[in-house]
Amino acid sequence: MSAELTPIQQRLEDFRQQGRVQAGSLIVSVFGDAVMPRGSRIWLGSLIRLLEPLELNERLIRTSVFRLTKEEWLCSEPAGRRTDYLLAPAGQRRFAEASRHIYAARAPQWDRRWRLIMLVGELAGKPREQLKRALFWQGFGMLGSDCFVHPSVDLTNAFDALIADGLGELLGRLKPLIAADTPYGSAASDLDMVHAAWNLNDLAAMYASFVQRYQPVLAQLRADSEHALDEESAFLLRILLIHDYRRLLLRDPELPDVLLPGDWPGHQARQLCREIYHRLLPASERHLDRHFQLANGQTPEASPTVYARFGEVDPLG
């Protein structure tokens, strides 16, 4: 009879046993978390070897990388018989914006003004669905059928993101607005706006599931602090942690604390992710030092900024 799996082993095994893996999404997480700090490029063969222990086969990774290239996340650069893949300009912008949210030590302060994007005129069919999807990915909620709302996004960046997503032809149909406070007591409250635009119950449930999945992992890391986790497992767990957390943040408008319940599970999820990440970082970076390669055989050093992600954290928990 085999020994019972530890929480860390269980998380890795759960991923391997998935019936269908969205490899492209995982590769996006790898580029954002591990490749960007080392110059934003990697040899395809090195990427394949790094992900092989998660039982992602070479064909799936190659197909996913080619698709990301077609979607302008990545671009290729041959070097002899090998090929480096690097972030395309649109991909760099997307990753920079995502990193600002993922690795923040705390949620941003709110200036108590709402950002609105109004759809002017009729827009139906595929273009409308593409617009809704693109803005939902940026954390916008909807008020009615033609108004998208966000508490803090930079509207210029939001429009730049639509251009990067290939929706630049729709900008002439969109009106950006910033809503100021009103002195009238009959105006809708900020909480009314939140409940009309977002389903916080669903988001809270997803955060609670994340905490339930990773709390045993943190307990193991704390208990075994004197016995180092092997470098490969540290790297793989780090990637899955950030991958799971990034997918949560894609659905999160990052509402200010004053608009959230006092026991909001997103706060616990951020602190949990933060501590696990810091505990995994040294061993996972040693693994990358050994196995990360460019097409020319070189291994670029990681930027020191990788150690500043999430801010400082108490190693004793």
UniProtKB/TrEMBL annotation:
One of its GO terms (biological process) is DNA-templated transcription. Residues 108-163 form the Transcriptional repressor PaaX-like central Cas2-like domain. It comes from the Bacteria. Pfam families: PaaX (PF07848), PaaX_C (PF08223), PaaX_M (PF20803). Residues 23-88 form the Transcriptional repressor PaaX-like N-terminal domain. Residues 198-289 form the Transcriptional repressor PaaX-like C-terminal domain. InterPro entries: PaaX-like_central (IPR048846), PaaX-like_N (IPR012906), PaaX_C (IPR013225), PaaX_trns_reg (IPR011965), WH-like_DNA-bd_sf (IPR036388). NCBIfam families: PaaX_trns_reg. This is PaaX family transcriptional regulator. It comes from Rivihabitans pingtungensis. The lineage of its organism: Bacteria, Pseudomonadati, Pseudomonadota, Betaproteobacteria, Neisseriales.
